[in-house]
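hiii so um. not sure if this is the right channel but i have a protein structure encoded as tokens and i wanna go backwards to a sequence. like what aa goes where. can anyone help
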């Protein structure tokens, strides 16, 4: 390419980028969700789809594509043109997959870009009433006095409610046995029935049982307390310094999506997150609003891959 032609192409691209942002969107946008309808990720996707439709003047449609840790859903997004018309609402499992699966059909860091982190959900450490304990130090002391005898339930190997258990094992130096279930609600039911000792559900899934006194909350895994359970201290407050674990939710796009389109999406999503009615709905679900976008969010994803990947390796979990 001659220098004159290169200059001409560069000039065309320089003018095309703002024009693309101004023209976007001119047709419907699709948000793929890697879980079934009714899951918290799906609920968030539909909430943002409704607001984006109102703000951007084009229909924003949610498409559920569950299964295999979200990999088929991500492949579907990456197979679409990277033009801002196909996005995906992901959870923190997005950062687990690169370690959990020995072979990935895409590169999480190179092929996918973060648009916006929108919310996180701290988990609550619950125990069965029969343990007769009320604090995290009491749980840790009991586990150390009975190595390998206490157990905890999760929503499955490599999932968020499994890895938080491994994080506690590592940071507290305890030996507690993992029991995987099909879903975290099943694990909560088993704690309530006294058949397992501990579980780490999102707050919204444990509130009813906590209020009824069927299970006991001994700690939150976030760095801050929640208004939903104001009396429950964080793990950090109870001696596990800097213990910070939340399930997060975010919108991502193909990395080849034009920057002006990414910036437009990030701006709209951040403004939606700031809406009082959106924050109220999040609070009812036990969610903490987040506003981390673009390059800062990409850096966050990389850090989460490293952090969660270390927990996956320590647990020995594999999905294939």
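sure thing!! here u go:
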């Amino acid at each position: 390419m001659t220098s004159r032609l290169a200059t001409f192409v560069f000039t065309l691209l320089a003018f095309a980028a703002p024009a693309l942002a101004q023209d976007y969107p001119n047709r419907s946008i699709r948000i793929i969700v890697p879980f079934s309808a009714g899951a918290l990720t799906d609920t968030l996707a539909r909430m943002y789809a409704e607001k984006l439709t109102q703000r951007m003047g084009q229909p924003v449609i949610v498409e559920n594509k569950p299964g295999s840790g979200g990999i088929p859903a991500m492949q579907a997004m990456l197979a679409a043109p990277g033009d801002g018309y196909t996005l995906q609402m992901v959870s923190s499992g997005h950062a687990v997959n690169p370690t959990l699966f020995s072979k990935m059909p895409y590169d999480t860091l190179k092929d996918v870009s973060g648009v916006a982190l929108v919310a996180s959900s701290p988990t609550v450490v619950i125990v069965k009433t029969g343990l007769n304990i009320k604090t995290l130090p009491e749980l840790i002391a009991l586990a150390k006095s009975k190595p390998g005898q206490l157990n905890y339930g999760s929503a499955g190997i490599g999932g968020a409610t499994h890895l938080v258990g491994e994080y506690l094992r590592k940071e507290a130096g305890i030996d507690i046995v993992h029991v995987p279930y099909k879903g975290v609600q099943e694990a909560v039911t088993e704690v309530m029935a006294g058949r397992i000792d501990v579980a780490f559900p999102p707050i919204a899934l444990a509130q009813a049982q906590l209020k009824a006194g069927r299970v006991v909350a001994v700690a939150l895994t976030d760095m801050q307390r929640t208004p939903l359970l104001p009396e429950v201290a964080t793990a950090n407050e109870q001696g596990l310094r800097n213990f910070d674990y939340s399930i997060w939710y975010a919108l991502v796009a193909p990395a080849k999506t034009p920057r002006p389109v990414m910036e437009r999406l990030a701006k709209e999503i951040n403004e939606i997150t700031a809406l009082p009615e959106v924050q109220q709905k999040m609070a009812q679900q036990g969610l903490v609003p987040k506003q981390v976008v673009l390059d800062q969010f990409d850096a966050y994803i990389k850090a989460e891959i490293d952090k969660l990947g270390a927990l996956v390796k320590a647990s020995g979990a594999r999905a294939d």
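oh and The chain has a mean pLDDT of 91.
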